[in-house]
Amino acid sequence: MIPSKALAALAMGVAAMGAQAQAIGVHLGSYHGGAAGMNNVNPGVYYKASSGFTAGAYYNSLRRPSAYMGYTHEWGALAVTVGAITGYNRAALPMVVPSLRIVEFHQVTARLAFVPKVRRDGAAAVHLMLEFPLR
Prior knowledge:
Blueprint: H1 4-17, E1 21-31, E2 41-49, E3 53-59, E4 65-75, E5 78-85, E6 93-105, E7 108-115, E8 125-133
Antiparallel strand pairs: 1-2, 1-8, 2-3, 3-4, 4-5, 5-6, 6-7, 7-8
């Protein structure tokens, strides 16, 4: 589903940063509020460094591969990831995605993110992710 080139680029970017790992995450799925035709199954992975550097890839709501890179700023349970994302109708779009830590169990954290509508024919979504600490 996610091209090996996108995962290789993600791995090289992380290695080049030389950042200390904070977490690796898994994208699971989204809910688009009943918007017709949107894909709600969005498997993917992401990496978040202790510096805030974040990069990931997933199968998006338009049934295309997406890759993104940016920084995540955290304030307790609240986080906002700011960066750029590919896989939609342009080469890259700006990305501002707030998320909330909703539960933690045995150091695995479930997060809900709000993905705002950025295209006229698009839809806003609530997205579920799991984070695993890397220490």
